[in-house]
Amino acid sequence: MGEKPKPIFVATHPRACSTAFERVFMTQRNTLTSVHEPFGDAFYYGPERLSARYENDLKAREDSGFSQSTYQTILERFEREEASEVRVHSSQRAMPPIILVSRLLFHASSTSSRPIGKRLFIKDIAHYLVPPNRKPASTAPSLSRKKRGVGTSDLKVNGAVDGITQAPYPYNTDTESKNPTVLPMEILGKFHFTFLIRHPRSSIPSYYRCTIPPLDKVTGFYNFMPSEAGYDELRRVFDYLRSVGLVGPRIAGQAEINGHTRSDGAPRGVDICVIDADDLLDNPTGVIEAYCRSVGLDYDPGMLKWDTNEDQQQARDAFEKWSGFHDDAMDSRMLKPREHAHRPTQPPNRRTPPLLLFILYYYTNHFNVLFLLMALLIRADMYDGKMKKTKSVEEEDKDWAERYGEKGAKIIRETVEANLKDFEYLKQFAIKV
């Protein structure tokens, strides 16, 4: 029997269409156990929280039900999920016992490399693992092996030390060189990391909308925090995992490099697997199939559809703690190509200038060549008619001002520009299909 594959960890930033992506793999209940954004519990609410969002709102932290969640308790949840992986799925309950037993025995005695049990599929926000605003990272206290000396404070439950309320970060714990997260590399190495990104011109306005009326009363996020955009943290986690060999050097969808070893002779890590949400929405079948190849999952066209009562109940149960953020994904029934494909640049002028035609004819001096070029231009125009035109900066600003006011539009534009370079950096690694 082969070695059990690592849990898949989809690291992303807010509003990256990640929940729609996650729903694809939630359909695979026979082989995958999905865990939805678990580290937010510790990041926002617990005694090791990194975020200041609820720092002065003890009631909100306690009402969340996660005020005692630490990074350790979340990892313990993963262990419990893995320990209970070998279950009889609902689709198997109707099987005659003899058939069910024979299937279980077959898997138990099989020499196939596929392991028994389910593989964890975790989707989470990368900045939940990283101190905000580029503060230096040190290991979460619940995961630290450092023994505290006399006179040092223990874990600060709800930020209270000697009766004085204060944020629990920074921690009085060890640091790891270049590790931007509060998880030790030993723990990061237990996961198979992949990455999901979306252009900030789409994600930032979407996130801003969740933090203003009327949606803020549903989400509980009453102010927009640019530090929660998440691109900087995602890039730094990505770069760190590459630097220590936990991902790469092979890029998913590209040819093998150096066989199964790196140039320095070390074992090859898992693929660099980055998904761009625009590519996903334009070509869900191709992108999901390529992703499955990269992470070692069997692709099934049925993954793109979730229209049973069981599918919908599973989504409600998984997403209820982040109310208001996942309504579109919860209401969806499938992932299909959007009507207008995304076009990253402005389309050319549809009208071919007469002067250009004259120049083409003058230099080719051949009507056949001219007609061929004209046909190609016409065909390109016809194809371009099916593409979604990307708005100009001026058009975006006008649209955002109409939706969120001049002040909101200014905040959105500044946040988009601040995160654009990190997006473009990660985009160069995206799967191409």
Question: What's the gist of this structure?
Answer:
This protein has 433 residues and is α/β, with parallel strands linked by helices. It has helices at 18-26, 40-45, 58-64, 71-83, 97-109, 185-188, 200-209, 216-219, 231-243, 277-282, 284-295, 309-319, 327-331, 354-364, 367-384, 393-427, and strands at residues 8-12, 32-36, 119-125, 160-161, 164-165, 192-197, 247-251, 270-272, 274-276, 341-342, 387-388.
Q: How would you explain this protein's 3D organization?
A:
With 433 residues, this protein is of the alpha/beta class. It is 41% helix and 10% strand. It contains 16 helices and eleven strands. The protein has helices at 18-26, 40-45, 58-64, 71-83, 97-109, 185-188, 200-209, 216-219, 231-243, 277-282, 284-295, 309-319, 327-331, 354-364, 367-384, 393-427; strands spanning 8-12, 32-36, 119-125, 160-161, 164-165, 192-197, 247-251, 270-272, 274-276, 341-342, 387-388. The strands form four sheets. The chain has a five-stranded parallel sheet with strand order 2-3-1-6-9, with helices on both faces. A two-stranded antiparallel sheet has the order 4-5. The longest helix is centred in the C-terminal third of the chain and has 35 residues, at 393-427. The chain is globular. It starts with 7 loop residues before the first strand and ends in a 6-residue tail after the last helix. Mean pLDDT is 80; it is low at 87-115, 147-165, 256-267, 345-352 and 375-385.
